[in-house]
Structure formats: C-alpha cells, structure tokens
Amino acid sequence: MPDPFCGLSAFPLTPADEQGRVDAGTLARLLERLCEAGVDSIGLLGSTGVYAYLTRDERRRAVTAAAECVGGRTPLVVGVGALRTDQAQALARDAEAAGADALLMAPVSYTPLTQDEAYEHFRAVASVSGLPLCIYNNPGTTHFTFGAELLARLSKIETIRAVKMPLPAGGDFAGEIAALRARTGLSIGYSGDWGMADAMLAGADAFYSVLGGMLPRPTVALVRAAQSGDPEGARRIDDALGPLWDTFKTYGSLRVMYALLDILGLGKAVPPRPILPLGLDARRRVASAVEPLLDR
Fold first, then answer.
1. Does residue 249 carry a catalytic annotation?
2. Which of 6, 51, 78, 198 is most exposed, with the fewest beta carbons within 10 Å of its own?
C-alpha cells in the first residue's frame, strides 16, 4: 500500500440527512471523483467529514461504504476521534474491521486535557489496532495544542507514524518541519488550504486538504507542481484558488463545502444542526469563486 501520510490527502464531506443518516450513494460518488483524480489518500470522517456529529453506527456505515467504493485503489485514512478513550478504541476497531488503511485522531475533549492525559489517550487507542495512526493537531476545534515533548513521546509508539499540523503562526514552515523531523521522525503534514502551496514547497510530506475532497483536480495539480520543484506552477494554481480560500476564511470551509456540493451538482446534503447552510449572497460568492475552476 502507498504511504497514506504522503502527498495530497483529500477530505470529503460525509453527506447525511437531517437525522444524521449517511447517504452512502452520494458519498461513493464523491469518493469516485477522488480516486479518478489521483489523490494520494482519502481522509474519511475528518472535521470536514463531520465525524463529531455522527453516531458510531453511522460512522461505521460510512467506512464500510467507502471501503467498498475505493476497493484498495487509494489509502483510506479514517478519523476515530471521540470524547472518551473507550469510545475512540471502539471506533478504531470498527474502522480496521471495515477496511480502513490508517487512522487519524484528534484529542476531542470538554474538560481541557493535560499533555499526559493526551499521551495516555493516544497510547490506549494505538494499542487496540495495528493500523498506522496520524496525530490530528487541530487546536482550532479541540482547543488542545500538542507540545514538542508530547509529540516526541508519541512518536515512540510503534503505530504512530504522522502528525497533521495547523499552519504555523509565523509562517516558518521549513523551520517547523526541520524541528519536528529532528525530534520525532514523524511524517509531517499540514491543513488550512490557503497554506497548501507554502507547506508543500517548504518540504512537507503531506497536505490534508478540505477542497481536495470536493474539487480534487486543481489541488492534486498544485501538490504535484510543488513536489516536482515547480514553484511558479504551484503559485499560479494557488492564485487561481485564492477567491475560494477567501470564502473559507469568511464563512468557514465546512459551510463552503456543503454549498459546493450543491453548486457542483454532486448531491444534496444539509450540515448537521446547529450549523446552518450559507445564505443566498454567500452562495453566490462561492459560486463565483469556483466557476473559473470548473474546467480544471
């Protein structure tokens, strides 16, 4: 199997109805587009895949449907984050049994976790599955930040192979990547789509992309340009995607993804309440931003 933590990892929506029942048909249609576009892995049930809003049964249905659709063509990385450690362990077992190739986990919490608590949480989940696991460092949603010492400790657990980082506050991708590699040996990837060009040109191993889950071709092209040492090509594609990045920053990438699902004619789905769909003016802005990209 190709390395699931290298290159472009595309994160699709998990389409579901108002009761939270997964629409396996629409999900399969989205995943087929990703395979055809040549993404390097699929990040199922990430934040864009609204994992935190779905029941265990629906998450299991999503993984089963995805594994059947993908059929080993592309590594399937499945999010298993949950509030309780035993719940996350159960989700990891479910994902492995349903055909996942790798796991992704954020330290979901209500009471803020200490660094030691997060370590024990990850250690316990890693102990119940033989699948490689990526640490999901997403302080914007979890309000937890992995310290350098914690990442170094976690990297000593055999199955923990990668970390998905937020964009560095000062923009020093190269410095952060070098420091993390020196201390951990983990595969280093980033999320925050407007930083995709900078991260990949600085030598990141992977980029975990929201837009890649809905519009994979330009994001694959951007990553391939960066990987091949073509900064001008990567910047050109990034500039074309700039209006979409602006909508992500203004409305939140998840809301934009639901609007794009409809605008692109790929299906119908509603965000899980209390998240509301974009209004008419915002949808028009998203449609205008994506229109020049539709022949890519």
1. no
2. 6
Residue 136: strand, helix, or coil: strand
pTM metric for this prediction: 0.97
Q: Give the Cα separation of 179 and 275 in Å (integer).
A: 37
Residue from 5, 17, 55, 7 nearest 199 by CA: 7
DSSP 51: G
Query: How do the domains of the chain map onto residue ranges?
Result: 7-230
* pLDDT of 86 higher than 90: yes
Q: Quick: pLDDT tens for 189-204.
A: 999 999 999 999 999 9
Give the three-state DSSP class for 296: coil
Parallel, antiparallel, or unpaired: how do β-strands 160-165 and 187-190 relate?
A: parallel
- Secondary element (H or E) of residue 35: helix 24-37
262: Cα separation from own chain's centroid: 21
Mean pLDDT, rounded, for 67-77: 97
Bridge partners of 207, per DSSP, are 8, 190
Give the list of residues 6+ apart from residue 63 with CB closer than 8 angstroms, or none: 44, 45, 76, 78, 94, 95, 98, 99, 100
pLDDT digits (tens, 9 = 90+) for 126-183: 999 999 999 999 999 999 999 999 999 999 999 999 999 999 999 999 999 999 999 9
- Candidate list 164, 190, 208, 258, residue with the active-site label: 164
Alpha carbons within 13 A on the beta-carbon side of 135? 33
CA distance 265 to 243: 20
Q: Within 13 Å, how many C-alpha atoms sit on residue 127's CB side? A: 8
Torsion angle in degrees (nearest 10) through CA of 248, 251, 256, 262: -150
CATH of span 7-230: 3.20.20.70
Selecting among 51, 119, 136, 208, the annotated active-site residue is 136
Contacts of 183 (CB under 8 A, 6+ apart): 148, 151, 152, 155
Note if 164 is an active site residue: yes
